[in-house]
Q: What sequence folds into this?
């Protein structure tokens, strides 16, 4: 309906324009005019595209940009998939036992894990394993107490300077938003932690750095930490390096986007509702306009209608 | 069900000017007619244009093919002059007036869109209102758990809850009896002890003096409860005001006791 | 023919029952909106849970919840 109407509109617009701008007014002229305009539009459009492509040439500088990670089928990166919550649970274990030695997770609190990967009782036990400073008490002194679900994850270092001092100048980034903050997202994180290898011939890696083709520049301060069996899963999942990497990537993806499951479900609902509304409003527009479009104009010609006018 | 719109503008035009046989000729008529109409505007003073609804006027119309030449005017059969106000029939395109299903369908579609709009709007408003409620971090801090096993008999413990001190008093039997023996009518703010506690052993009060907001001192004062050092208000073992400038009893917060765990908030 | 007769009677009944009076029509729309939102939400939720079966927390929760008497 729209397309036909739009086509008609443009046809009539082109026709009237050609009438206005040329002495000839027949169908052939307007068709060639349309063709001319279409050619000009195509030429301009392709010109701009070519200029843009010329300015922004495709390049693959692996040394500078890092190897582009392949695409992995994480369920939560698909259009309508939720997180694999069992994987979040395992990934938390990996994070706690491996990553948390150097990396912080500032934006995640213990309570965030409740009804995501742990029960409330389990979270209380997990939090109570750590000591937090609280206070001041009646005497105005700070004191230590076991953690509560409302506390954030403990930090491995009190500040950035301490972290750099402990890691030979390198600062382990906070992992709260890491899958959002890196190009490639979950694919990059997975590729990075599984992608350590020997440097190719001719590439020199300084002492204290490690070669990783997925890391921009190729030399990363973080050493390989994920190996087969580096953790032992409580649910009996074989702890291969790729399984561990997958689980911790899923966990970090959840830390970045804890609202993802609800967001996607809400998106489905919104798309369904609004497409229904669009269809209904199109129908109602037709219905309301039908009385207007059914109008009939009757012309009563004058009595001298047939008499030719003299020049 | 038949949709009400079956006649597009082009169909009407074609029917109206349907003297020529071919579509190309129809187009030519349209072009020349438009041009001629403006030319003869001055001459056609007595002409009238009337609009009628297609469904109302139903007159049969017959047309006879005529040649349309260049500069030919409207010399067709249906537009031939006075007394020939014949209107083409749109009978093929109009609907039966007796057909109620189309009307019901129209109302159904209108009602359905209203329903979906209302449901969507309700969901949107709900989302906005939920946005105003307390956020998760506030809710997480709003409750405090107290392990009652750590409070020996006769002791009072101060707990921080939403930035305020809360006194949890483990009362002895003598204290309970004392709280119940008071003549209620003689109190400045009369309240039975049973109304202030869930179980008699545990008294929970917000530790803010109702006078000017100082924090009273536990287990002191003339009545064995609390004593406010700022202006000398005395509270008894039930947290009720007995002496001094404070107007009201100490406030009792919401709490639940489940076994040996008390949750305040 | 029979089908059109059925359509006619159904539409006539619907029209006379729900659409004829403005107040009834409006009430029908409001009640329908409530019913529709409940039905729609539960339908989408069911489809969603079915599509992501085994991945969500409620599917694996039973493995980790300790019995209440502990």
A:
């Amino acid at each position: 309906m729209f397309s036909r109407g739009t086509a008609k509109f443009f046809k009539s617009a082109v026709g009237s324009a050609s009438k206005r701008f040329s002495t000839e007014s027949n169908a052939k002229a307007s068709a060639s005019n349309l063709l001319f305009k279409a050619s000009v539009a195509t030429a301009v459009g392709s010109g701009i595209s070519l200029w843009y492509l010329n300015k922004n040439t495709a390049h693959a500088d692996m040394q500078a940009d890092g190897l582009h990670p392949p695409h992995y089928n994480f369920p939560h990166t698909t259009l309508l998939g939720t997180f694999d919550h069992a994987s979040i649970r395992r990934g938390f274990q990996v994070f706690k036992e491996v990553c948390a030695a150097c990396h912080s997770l500032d934006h995640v609190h213990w309570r965030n894990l409740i009804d995501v990967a742990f029960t409330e009782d389990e979270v209380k036990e997990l939090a109570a394993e750590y000591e937090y400073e609280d206070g001041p008490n009646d005497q105005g002194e700070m004191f230590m107490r076991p953690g509560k679900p409302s506390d954030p994850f403990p930090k491995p270092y009190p500040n950035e300077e301490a972290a750099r001092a402990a890691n030979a100048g390198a600062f382990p980034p906070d992992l709260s938003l890491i899958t959002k903050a890196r190009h490639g997202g979950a694919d990059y994180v997975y590729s990075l932690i599984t992608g350590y290898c020997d440097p190719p011939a001719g590439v020199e890696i300084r002492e204290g750095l490690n070669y990783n083709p997925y890391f921009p520049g190729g030399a990363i301060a973080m050493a390989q930490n994920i190996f087969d069996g580096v953790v032992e899963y409580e649910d009996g999942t074989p702890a291969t390096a790729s399984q561990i990497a997958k689980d911790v990537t899923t966990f970090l993806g959840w830390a970045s986007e804890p609202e993802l499951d609800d967001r996607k479900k809400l998106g489905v609902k919104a798309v369904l509702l609004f497409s229904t509304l669009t269809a209904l409003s199109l129908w109602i527009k037709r219905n309301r306009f039908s009385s207007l479009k059914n109008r009939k104009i009757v012309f009563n010609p004058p009595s001298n209608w047939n008499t030719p006018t003299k020049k | 069900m038949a949709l009400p719109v079956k006649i597009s503008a082009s169909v009407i035009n074609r029917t109206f000017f349907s003297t020529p046989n071919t579509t190309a000729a129809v187009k030519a008529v349209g072009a020349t007619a438009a041009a001629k109409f403006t030319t003869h505007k001055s001459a056609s003073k007595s002409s009238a244009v009337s609009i009628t609804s297609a469904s109302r006027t139903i007159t049969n119309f017959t047309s006879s093919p005529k040649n349309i030449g260049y500069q030919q005017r409207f010399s067709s059969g249906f537009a031939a002059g006075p007394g020939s106000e014949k209107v083409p029939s749109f009978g093929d395109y109009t609907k039966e007036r007796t057909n109620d299903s189309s009307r019901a369908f129209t109302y159904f579609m209108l009602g359905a869109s209203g329903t979906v709009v209302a449901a969507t709007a309700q969901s949107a408003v709900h989302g906005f209102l939920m946005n105003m409620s307390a956020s998760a971090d506030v809710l997480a801090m709003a409750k405090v758990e107290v392990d009652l096993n750590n409070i020996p008999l006769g002791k009072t413990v101060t707990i921080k809850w939403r930035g305020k001190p809360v006194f949890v008093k483990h009362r002895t039997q003598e204290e309970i009896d004392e709280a119940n023996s008071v003549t209620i009518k003689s109190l400045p703010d009369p309240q039975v002890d049973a109304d202030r506690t869930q179980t008699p052993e545990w008294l929970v009060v917000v530790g803010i003096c109702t006078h000017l907001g100082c924090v009273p001192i536990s287990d002191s004062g003339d009545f064995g409860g609390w004593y406010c050092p700022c202006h000398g208000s005395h509270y008894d073992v039930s947290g009720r005001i007995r002496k001094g400038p404070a107007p009201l009893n100490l406030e009792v917060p919401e709490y639940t006791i489940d076994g040996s765990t008390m949750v305040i908030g | 023919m029979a089908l059109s007769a059925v359509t006619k009677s159904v539409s006539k009944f619907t029209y006379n029952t729900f659409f004829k009076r403005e107040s009834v029509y409006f009430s029908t729309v409001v009640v329908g909106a409530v019913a529709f939102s409940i039905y729609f939400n539960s339908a989408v939720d069911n489809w969603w849970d079915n599509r992501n079966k085994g991945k969500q927390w409620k599917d694996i929760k039973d493995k980790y919840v300790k019995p209440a008497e502990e």
Observations:
- The longest strand of chain B covers residues 164-170.
- The first helix of chain B runs from residue 9 to 16.
- Residues 1-72 of chain B have pLDDT under 50 and may be disordered.
- The two ends of chain B are 61 Å apart (CA to CA).
